């Protein structure tokens, strides 16, 4: 399995380089054609997308995004997958922000400053599991939900670099050396009413495998189908 992934990544890099060179040669050979404003803008857009893809393939990462309805067990599943209790799982919707858990041997917590944030932001190192959990729950999620009751604000963005237990055993995932792994706990469906937060969620799920959590005991078949359709729109 590892060899197959390595081959796919190598072939993708080679094909991407060939594509970039072909477009570069085309623009150099026919500069007058690309003087057209419309074509020039499309060429620049291609260059940006091409460079982003090149960068991602230089440091490939397996991203898994957890989406679903509020209080459906998303954070519980995330904790089970990483083998640690890091994502808050208190009563109510505690995962209203964007919590990214990335595999790393050196522990670090980053709480980004977002528009309208009313919680502490910054960088912390060497926090244990319990300290991380409390910092995310009490320092970010609770202030965020208190603020949301009074006014709109951007969902907090939190990234924790910690050893993810499944990644520590190479036999479990079978990924080539150097491939990163991250799990993203996203806001529940009922807590993403504003466009800014929807944009954040769509940005994450478009670059990740999505796992959908839905509490079948909370809704009937009709309501469940409607929720799944709404989730599908968010992902698309």
Description:
It is a single chain. The protein is an alpha/beta fold and 236 residues long. It folds into two domains: 2-58, no CATH class; 61-235, no CATH class. It has eight helices and seven strands; from the N terminus they run H-H-E-H-E-E-E-H-E-H-H-E-H-E-H. It has a seven-stranded mixed sheet, with helices on both faces. Helix 1 (2-29) packs antiparallel against helix 2 (37-58). The longest helix is centred in the N-terminal third of the chain and has 28 residues, at 2-29. The model has no long low-confidence stretch (mean pLDDT 83).
Name the features.
236 residues, alpha/beta, 2 domains, 7-stranded mixed sheet, 8 helices, 17% strand
Low-confidence stretches: none
- Report the strand count: 7
Side-by-side strand order of the widest sheet: 4-3-5-2-6-1-7
How large, in whole angstroms, is the Cα Rg? 21 Å
Measured between the Cα atoms of the first and last residue, the distance is: 29 Å
GO biological process, one term: mitochondrial fusion
Pfam families: Dynamin_N
Organism: Dulcicalothrix desertica PCC 7102
Keywords: GTP-binding, Hydrolase, Membrane, Nucleotide-binding
Quick rundown:
GO terms for molecular function: GTP binding; GTPase activity. The chain has about 240 residues and is an alpha/beta fold.
Task: List the topology elements.
Blueprint: H1 2-29, H2 37-58, E1 61-68, H3 74-82, E2 98-103, E3 108-111, E4 122-125, H4 129-148, E5 157-162, H5 165-168, H6 170-173, E6 180-185, H7 195-205, E7 209-213, H8 221-235
Parallel strand pairs: 1-6, 1-7, 2-5
Antiparallel strand pairs: 2-6, 3-4, 3-5
Helix pairs in contact: 1-2
